[in-house]
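User: Teach me something about this protein's shape.
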Amino acid sequence: MRVAIYARVSTSDKDQDLATQLMPLREFVKSQSWQTYNEYSDQVSATDIVHRTSWRELLSDASKRRFDLILVWRMDRAFRSVLDAATTLERLKTWGVGLRSYTEPWLDTTSPFGEVLYYITVAYAQMERSILRERVKAGMDRARKQGMQIGRPRVTDRRGFNQTYGAVLERLKAGELSRRQAARELRIGYATFKRLLDADKGRETN
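Assistant: First, the predicted structure itself:
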């Protein structure tokens, strides 16, 4: 059996290493007396499909039936959502290519039972993420109702900011500072400083 090995780590997690996935995958292929067609690996987020060049190359080779099975460390290394997984699986079935997870051995689309468990697992993972998002949203809504600050505090809420802003504004009007210099003195971005100025102008107009 010709096997394509795929590994992926996210750039946001510096503790991950592609070798952690690739080494046991190679050993597993050898233990099964399979033939490794090629190894594909990406170091990018699962959702960043544009930069997952190796994954796209793997699918292209799969469409040409250059191997019989894709072996991954875990299913979430390959797919970004349940819909993505289901769509890709249908394409692989059309091409006659199977999919197997090393750490989830029951997920093997080359068997009918494994295919059913595969769909159940990816659906459950998606549901779990949805429940977590709903819990986070509910917690944020409750915090807002209780008057708690959500997200970053506004720059104008910083202690002493309004007094410093007033002094810097006077120097700006006197021509002692440029807008960018004023923003640096206030330790805020130029765009933020411009928004504050625009808001002041709007109040003056009203």
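Now, about its shape. Helices lie at 18-31, 53-63, 82-95, 112-145, 161-173, 179-186, 190-205. Residues 112-145 form the longest helix (34 residues). If you'd like, I can walk through any region in more detail.
User: That's plenty for now, thanks!
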